[in-house]
Predict the structure.
Amino acid sequence: MSKGIIKRTRQFYSTRRINTWVIFYVLIYAILIIKLITIQELDSSMVFGVYSFLASLYILSRFALVYFYEPDPTRLDRRFEPTISFGIPAKNEEANIKETILRIAATDYPKDKFDIIAINDGSTDGTLDEMMAAQRTALTRGIHVRIVHWQRNKGKREGMAECVRQSTKDIVIFIDSDSFVEPSTARALVQYFADDRVAAVAGHAYVANANTNLLTKMQEVRYFVAFKAYKAAEALFGAVTCCSGCCSAYRRAYLGEMLDPWLHQRFLGVPCTYGDDRSLTNFLLQRGYKALFAPEAIAYTFVPDGFRQFMRQQLRWKKSRVRESFKAPGFMWQKHPLMALSFYLGVLLPLVAPVVLPSHLVPVTQPLTSRFTA
C-alpha cells in the first residue's frame, strides 16, 4: 500500500510541478497588484503604508534570492562517503514505521557505512512489532537496525538525543516515523558535509497525501514554498533557520557539543518539548556553523488531513517559532547583512501585524478606479 502511495506521489509531483510554478507566479502577480492598490494608503496611514511595503519586500525578496541559490560545487564532493546513522524516533506509528525503515534500508549507499536506529517512544499500539518485523527484513539485506524500546513516553527530543548517543557514525540523518526517503537521499545530503563548516543540511519534503482533500492540497503548496523558496533563500547565506525533522542530516561531532543544553532547554522556566528541529538548528547556528538546504535530497511525508489535528500541529510549530524568535536575534546579526535584515523583518512583521491590520480590515467603499484617478 505504501509503495503505491509513493509511486503515485512521484508521478503526481512530476506532472504538477509546472502547475505549481504557474500558480506561484499568478500569486506573485496578485500580490503586486494588491500592493499597487494599497500604496495609496501612504497618504492616509503612514504606518500601514510602511508595514505594507516592508511585508511585500520581505516576501518578494525571499523569492528573488532563490534565483541566486546554487550549491557551491567547490564545496561539494559527490565521492564523499562518511559513515551514517539514520535516527527514527517514533510513537504510535504502526501504520508507517515498517515502510519507513525499509525505505531507508534500500538506500543507495555502502551497506557497511550506515545503520538505522529506531526509538520506540512508549508506543501503545503495534509500533514495536512493526519495527521488529522491519529489523528482520532489513537484516536479510545486510542492514543493521538497532531498536531502543522505552516503556514510558519521553518525547521526541529525548528520542533524537538517544539516536545521537547510540550512534558511532559521522553523520546522523533524522527521519520522521511517517516519512519515506528516496534511495539517493543520503548521498544528496552527505556531499555537503565535505565542507567542515557545515553542521546541518535540510532535505526537501514533499507531501505524500496531497490528494486526500483540500486541506492537504493547501499544505502541499505551503511545503513547496517553505522549502523551494524560504529554505533555499536562507541557504544562500548558510543559515537555514529550521532543518525540518522529516528529513535532515547533522554532523554528530557538532551535536555532541550542544546536546546537553539543547536537551534541557527551557523557556520562561518551562522545559521545551516541541519545535525540536528549529531549536536544534538554532543551537548550531549560534555556534557559527552553517546550515544548508539540499533540494535534491527527497523525502515524502504525511500531513494532517483533519482540521483539528492540523491546528494542534500548527500551534506547536508557531509556539516554537515564537520561542526561537526570542533567541535567534541575539546571534543572527553576525550573519550576512541581507540574511540578518530578512530574518529581523520576519520576526518584526508578525508582531506588528495585530496592531496595524485591525484598523484597516473594513470594506472598501471607494470605487477602485477612483483610487487611481483621484
